[in-house]
Design brief:
The complex is a heterodimer.
Chain A lengths: L13 E4 L5 H11 L3 E6 L24 H6 L3 E5 L7 H10 L3 E4 L3 H6 L4 H7 L4 E4 L16 H7 L2 H4 L19 H20 L3 E4 L2 H6 L3 H10 L16 E5 L10 E5 L3 H10 L14 H6 L1 H12 L4 H10 L3 E4 L3 H7 L1 H6 L3 E5 L3 E5 L5 E2 L17 H8 L4 H9 L5
Parallel strand pairs in A: 1-2, 1-4, 2-3, 4-5, 5-6
Antiparallel strand pairs in A: 7-8, 8-9, 10-11
Helix pairs in contact in A: 1-8
Chain B lengths: L9 E4 L6 H9 L3 E6 L23 H7 L3 E4 L5 H11 L4 E4 L3 H9 L4 H7 L4 E6 L14 H7 L20 H24 L4 E5 H6 L5 H8 L15 E5 L4 E5 L9 H10 L9 H8 L3 H5 L1 H6 L1 H17 L2 H10 L4 E3 L3 H5 L2 H5 L4 E5 L8 E5 L5 E2 L17 H9 L3 H10 L3
Parallel strand pairs in B: 1-2, 1-4, 2-3, 4-5, 5-6
Antiparallel strand pairs in B: 7-8, 8-9, 10-11
Helix pairs in contact in B: 1-7
The chains are: A alpha/beta, B alpha/beta.
Chain lengths: ~425, ~425
Amino acid sequence: MTSDNAARPLDGVRVADFSWFGVGPIAARTLADFGADVIRIESEARVDGLRLGQPIKPGKTGYNVCAYFNNFNADKRSFLLNMSAEGSQEVAYRLIERSDVFLSNLTPRIFERWNLTYEQLREVKPDIIAAYMPMQGLSGPHRDFLGFGAVLTPTTGISHLSGDPDRAPVGVGTNYPDYVVNPGHTVIAILAALRHRRKTGQGQRIELAQVESVAATMGPSLLDYTANGVNQVRNGNKSSWMCPHGIYRCADDPSGRERWIAIAVGDDAQWESLRAVAEGAAFTTDDRFATLLGRRRHEDELNSMLSDWTTSFDAAALAIQLQSVGVAAALVQDAEDMCEHDDHLAARGFYEYLDHPETDISLYDGPIVKLHGTPGYLASPAPLFGQHTYEVATEVLGYSADEVAELTSSGVLS
Amino acid sequence: MTQSALDGVRILDLTSEMGWYCGKLLADLGADVIKVEPVGGDPSRGRAPFWQGIPGRETSLRFWYFNANKRSVTLDLGQYDGRWLFGELIRTADIVIESWTAAERAELAEHDVDPDAYMKAQPALIWVSITGFGLDGPRAGWEVTDIVAQAAAGIATLAGYPDGSPMRIAGNQAYAVAGISAAQGALLALLQAEATGSGQRVETSIQEALSICQETAHLQWDFQGASRERVGESHRLPGIGTYETSDGFIFSMVGVPGFGAPWTEVIGWMDENGMAEDLTEPEYANTFANFNMRILLDEEEQAKHAPVLARAQEVLTRFYASKTTMEAYEEGQSRRLLIGQVATPSDIADSEHLTAREWWLELNQPTRLGSEDAALRYPGPPYHLSETPASIRRPAPQIGEHNQEVWVDEVGIPAEDLIAFAGEGAV
């Protein structure tokens, strides 16, 4: 374990986090994991939907018991500030003055109404790094379009290109771009801007149009169209060059749970290794599959015969056996596997279990990257709703106890 | 002159496809990224799609996209002279990025290519390792590919059709996530090194980074002891899911309280088009005026309203089918309904919005297929930094294109020595 006062790269960096839901708070959590003091703005007038989401701790109710919120907000301070209340702007600006980074995934309509544009923030704090994460960007005909991960997956080509070619697209089962692609790109931009500020003293505006950030991961498919006029289609779990390549059914576990294995064979040596492990199976002696070209020509049949073979195996054991001879393979893990049975993740200590006042010992994702010298860590679980309002108002913003009482009774700090 | 955020940072990029994106992200922000390739070139240069469909190591669109802005030198780390050259080059570098497999790592260690030794000799050096499963732990030696990582990270099981197999998310997302994780680590370590003079090892486990995309599945297990299953669109309510249009598909997510306009807005939209049928009648209008979280989450509540919901589904399905995808997308969004176009690559290329935002870049890429460069319309960056924008300054390199420039002009190897190294195959 890392000691809770070990140096981290973002020690001394303060983030005024005006974001909510998934994508913004997740970006801020990485900054917090690596030492930043993240002050998360919340309000009774505008409760983060994830505080009201699922899953909640059984038997508990309220704002503090949803793991969806808690996981993405560990290590932050929760500060109540109602931006619709008279006098809130002065408090917000006082926080900006004392911050290095401003972060928001609010729609342009909202942050303009709250007077939190970059031009306004720069007046308050000339070297602020202000990161905005609007769905479609700050300009363009679709500027005010709404959405989040579930809408981005379709609009960036991921849905069209995922799944079976002979069925309608089905999405990816989660709000995928919200969790790493968009928050991660945002963190990269903020870290680059921090370096520039250290060198030059200059702040800047970061605009991450979420649709562009996700489309940037789809470059080869987009170039295939702009360069070649080829409009790609979805192709199931097949690869353009590896064969066999897919996800194959294995034996159900004793409780009837479906078990699957992913297998990717990249060259003839791996093919021979797979054949050796599968000695006796029909596909291993079929001459049509001797070469990559032959396997690709008869791919559907090969996949079907391979499935006939995998179906009697324990998926986890088969993955270990295939990996032992150099074939890329893995059990298709579900949450139970990830949390209970993955001895590798456990040995590496990826998941962190933090004691939270209302949810007790609860699981949190570890940091997204491991730094050996100055590792990230979670110094505290998610804050309770408004837990740090008084502390931030007095210690960070310099208000007196009387002023805090006044701001609270007038509804600003609520 | 435009400034770059990563001015003066030199990076050696020894990665294969799995690690390309990290170097691209840092190169586009201004770092001097030198691709260090084996003699004959990075084996993953041969990945589809290809320029004009012509396969080759200098025609891969995939390679070009992820390696623009980088320079290329070649060397053979299996030879003593190759390793000596590598040592000379590392002395000029701030960051090394590699994505070696465990087998490659072991083989290089036998040749004394040891990250710890380089870091000991050069305390400010940052060494980034991009791996499938991390540098330690029982599966550290495992082979990884995109689909294997998606399986091991707990996300393939959530994607796809409930009556089919788990599904891989398109676009080699495991490698995108690997690059995004590693670039964050590299920059964090750079800030630390520039403040303190101490470099460090940075390690990306793709399994770990990608597992964050499980959303709530692991959290639900922790709280409730139940694994989230692949549901596809099997339990959907009217207004939520993928619908066919007259020329494609849209994804619709309307009626979720707190997300855009309410369901009654959909009825108004259908009514204006003369397609609301009987949904304007009180029986329906009342249900949808009170469409709330309980209907969304509670199966008993859904059962109570089943006939109304089924009827609404029918009418809405007909309505969406009467619209083109763009009509449904733009008209719906103008009413603040959460609707997304299920875009194909051509839809994205033709997007008036992205064109108006000048997202696309122009780039001339040499092809070695004759004298004509490929004039590419190139996907733009993920972000806009107002003072230090990401940019594409040069096309992807040909194999060893910068050997002379880097080895002779910058590292200071005498030209005749370079000729000798080339003769023995070290370069």
